Amino acid sequence: MSLINENFLELQESYLFSTVAKKVAKFAEEHPDKKIIKLGIGDVTRPIAKACIEAMHKAVDELGTEEGFRGYGPEQGYDFLRNAIVENDYKARGIDISSDEVFVSDGAKCDCGNIVDIFAKDNVVAITDPVYPVYLDTNVMAGRSGKFNKEKQVYENIVYLPVTAQNNFEPELPKQKVDLIYLCFPNNPTGTVLTKEQLKKWVDYAKENNSIILYDAAYEAFITEKNIPHSIYEVEGAKDVAIEFKSYSKTAGFTGVRCAYLVIPKTVKGYTKTGEKIELNKLWNRRTCTKFNGVSYIVQRAAEATYSKEGKKEIKANIEYYLENAKIIREGLIKAGYEVYGGVNSPYIWLKVPGNMTSWEFFDKLLAEKNIVGTPGSGFGPHGEGYFRLTAFGTRENSIEAIKRI
Ligand code: PLP
């Protein structure tokens, strides 16, 4: 008899995006004359930078030659990319990371999900709420969540750290001791950020409690304000306690191309039950070599090209395009009287649903009256209730039109 991993039965069905899709399809069928504007999805729309496309073409041609052919690459990523990451994303910011602390992958989603492999089941996990759902669900699958409380909409063993307007979107340090802390800034879905000083409190907490911070910086490229760290390693002491996730998805439009990386400094240590300190870099390297055969050469050349002079210029222009959309949406909503967060250092705009409506009631109203699609905040966690997410990843024309309608 094959026994299943029963932790999977603890997962709550995520109806969020399927319900959104169903409601939109029904509305479109009933109102074929209406032009629906979709500002719900978190996928990019701008074409990939030419520098990256050219690098991919060149890599394809190389593979068709005797001297340029490559089979399996290094599981951790090619040196040319790991070195480019170190130089551009770390050294250029005054951060000392070595290339063997960088692991290239096919996505931050996989990295965030797979990292749980190297941690024991008994760890107490803290997540901010609302947040990108992958952190929670992968810990449920790994058996760290306990049972789901339907009434409160929370798992009994997970420590939820609310981020709402009430605490100015700065999570409070947990009252109890936690072992693994997921932080995501700029945040999906709230679009809010933490300053270096605010992040320092978390680094200090992690040091005091021998915890690990899992820092998702997938939206780092959208940061516009000074004093907002692009990497957690800009914060003193973080190299002892933090693992960082980065992705080319939102930065360079690679949501379909697939490339990301994670950083585990050799100074980050976990513990055995007997208290022996173990380098997490070593464990992750072992896991990577066993379960992964690397990202394709073609894709890694494309990622390398994001750091070329031309690549940087084109990518900056795309990010600025999305940020201008964010500004239009954000300022338009404020003018229309909404309470609005995010959208300054992020492609996400998080608005307070007016009156006593729920997130879903607001979704229905916006679709019916303005023919605009967004994402109900409650889909990102219980403290997302009463909020609503719009994204700046649409076209300029649609962003302007949406605001006109609102
Ligand atoms: N992390 C966050 C916070 C995200 O919002 C997303 C995608 O929406 C990801 C990671 C996934 O990134 P990738 O495309 O590299 O898997």
CATH architectural name of the largest domain = 3-Layer(aba) Sandwich
User: What's the SSE pattern?
Assistant: HEHHEHEHEEEEHEEHEEEHHHEEHEEEH
Stretches where pLDDT is under 50 for at least 5 consecutive residues are none
Q: What is the total number of structural domains?
A: 2
Structural class: alpha/beta
Major β-sheet, in short?
7 strands, mixed
List cofactors, ions and other ligands.
pyridoxal-5'-phosphate
Assigned CATH class of the largest domain = Alpha Beta
CATH 4th-level superfamily of the largest domain: Type I PLP-dependent aspartate aminotransferase-like (Major domain)
Assembly type: single chain
- The largest sheet has its strands arranged as 2-10-9-8-7-3-6
What does this structure look like?
The chain has about 400 residues and is α/β, with parallel strands linked by helices. It folds into 2 domains: about 10-45 and about 310-405, Aspartate Aminotransferase, domain 1 (Alpha-Beta Complex), CATH 3.90.1150; about 80-305, 3-Layer(aba) Sandwich (Aspartate Aminotransferase, domain 2). The protein contains 12 helices and 17 strands. The protein has helices at about 15-30, 50-65, 80-90, 110-115, 135-140, 195-210, 250, 280-290, 295-305, 310-335, 360-370, 395-405; strands at about 35-40, 100-105, 125-130, 150, 155, 160, 180-185, 210-215, 240-245, 260-265, 270, 275-280, 340, 350, 370-375, 375, 385-390. The strands form 5 sheets. It has a 7-stranded mixed beta sheet, with helices on both faces. A 4-stranded antiparallel beta sheet has the order 13-14-17-16. Strands 1-15 form a two-stranded parallel ribbon. Strand 4 (about 150) and strand 5 form a beta hairpin. The longest helix is centred in the C-terminal third of the chain and has 27 residues, at about 310-335. The protein is globular. It binds pyridoxal-5'-phosphate.
